[in-house]
Amino acid sequence: MSVLQQIEGLKKEALGELENTGDAGQLEAWRVRHLGKKSRLNEVLRSLSSLPVEDRKTVGGAANRLKAELEESLANREEVLGKQHTASARVEQLDITLPGCRPPIGRLHPVTRVIGEMSRIFTSMGFQVVEGPEVEWDYYNFEALNIPKEHPARDTMATLWVDYENEKGERPMLMRTHTSPMQVRVMENAEPPLRVVVPGKVYRYEAIDATHIPMFHQIEGFAIDTNITMADLKGTLYEFAHRFFGRDRKARFRCDYFPFVEPGVEMSIECAVCKGSGCRLCGNSGWIEILGAGMIHPRVLERVNIDPQKFSGFAFGMGIERIPMLRYGIDDIRLFYGSDLRFLRQF
Ligand code: PHE
C-alpha cells in the first residue's frame, strides 16, 4: 500500500471516528489518537525525510492537507457538541412540565381576617365601620357609660392606667378596657339614625395564661334609631351568628349585667366541639358565650343629648380572638401573638 493510500485510509478512519464522539473527553482522546505526537499521521510527517525526493512533495502535501482537514473537522465537531450540550442543558433547566415554584408571600393575621369577615357581614346589614383611640379618658371608658368612680363594675375590667396627672391631681388617662367608649364618642358627634361597628385593640391588666393576654381585640356594634327594640338586637345578632358560624349553629340569649345597657344579655352559641352535649371546652354546658349586649341605657343617651323618649338603641361587644379559637379549636390565645410562622401560616 502506498503512503498516499495510507493517508487516505487514515482520513476515512479519523473522520469516521470523529462522527461518533459525544463529549469533550472523547474529542480529546480523538485528538491525541489522530493528531497527537504519537499519531500515525505524525509518524508519516516525521518520516518524510526518508522518502525519495520525488515523493516528498506529494506525500508531504497530502499529509499536511490531512492534518489541516482534521484540525478543522475537530474544531467543527467541538462547536457542534458545544451547542448540543448547552441546548440540552437549557432544556433541562426549563422543564416546562414541572410545576412552578411559588414564591413565598405574606398573608393577613388571623385576627385581621376575622375582623374583615365580621365587618363585611355588618356592613352588608347597613352598619358603618369606624375606629377609635386606644389611649382613652376615664370619662369615655367608664363615666359616660354609667360606671362612676366607685362602681363595682370597674373591678371586672382590671385597668392599665397611663402615668399622666392633670391640674386637679387626677389620673384620668387609661388604655381602653373595651371598645364601648366609642359608643359615646360617635353619639357625641353624629345624630341618629346610627348603625356603627368598631373593631380594635383593648387592654386589661391580666396575668398571662392560655386564655388571658393584656392586649386583645373586640368589635363593638350599636344601632340607634326610633323604635329600636330588643327584637332588632336579637334579629341582628342571630343573623350575624348564622352567617358567621353557619345556619345550623344554634344561638341563645340569657340575662347579663352591664351598667350601660338595660336590659343586658349575653349571647352564646352551641359548642362546636360537642355540638351541645357538653365537653371540656364549654365546661359541660354545651354553650359558649361569645358576646355581651343590651339596650343602651337611657342615662347613656341623655348624657350625649339624645332624647331617650324619642330614640332607643341596642349595643353589643364581642371578643375577637375567641372566635377563631372556637372555630379552629385553638387552645392557647398566646399563639396569636407569638410570631411563630408555623402557627400563623395555617390561616
Ligand atoms: N363592653 C362589654 C365588655 O367588654 C361588652 C358589651 C358591649 C356589653 C356592649 C353590652 C353592650 O364586656
Chain-wise SSE layout:
Blueprint: H1 3-19, H2 24-35, H3 40-46, H4 53-93, H5 110-124, E1 128-129, E2 135-137, H6 138-141, E3 173-175, H7 181-189, E4 194-203, E5 215-225, H8 230-245, E6 251-256, E7 261-270, E8 287-296, H9 298-303, E9 312-319, H10 322-328, H11 341-344
Parallel strand pairs: 1-4
Antiparallel strand pairs: 2-3, 4-5, 5-9, 6-7, 7-8, 8-9
Q: pLDDT under 50 segments (min length 5)? A: none
Helical content class: 25-40%
Task: Kindly report the average pLDDT value.
Answer: 91
Q: How many strand elements?
A: 9
**How far is it from the N-terminal to the C-terminal residue, by CA?**
86 Å
Outline the biggest β-sheet: 7 strands, mixed
Associated small molecules: phenylalanine
Structural class label: alpha+beta
What fraction of residues sit in β-strands? 15-25%
Shape: rod-shaped
Give the strand line-up of the largest sheet: 1-4-5-9-8-7-6
Helix and strand succession? HHHHHEEHEHEEHEEEHEHH
Q: What is the radius of gyration?
A: 43 Å
Question: What count of helical segments does DSSP give?
Answer: 11
Descriptive report:
The protein has helices at residues 3-19, 24-35, 40-46, 53-93, 110-124, 138-141, 181-189, 230-245, 298-303, 322-328, 341-344; strands at 128-129, 135-137, 173-175, 194-203, 215-225, 251-256, 261-270, 287-296, 312-319. The radius of gyration is 43 Å and the shape is rod-shaped. It is 40% helix and 18% strand. It is of the alpha+beta class. The strands form two sheets. It has a seven-stranded mixed sheet with strand order 1-4-5-9-8-7-6, with helices on both faces. A two-stranded antiparallel ribbon has the order 2-3. The chain is built from eleven helices and nine strands. Phenylalanine is lined by residues 178, 180, 258, 261, 292-294, 315-317.
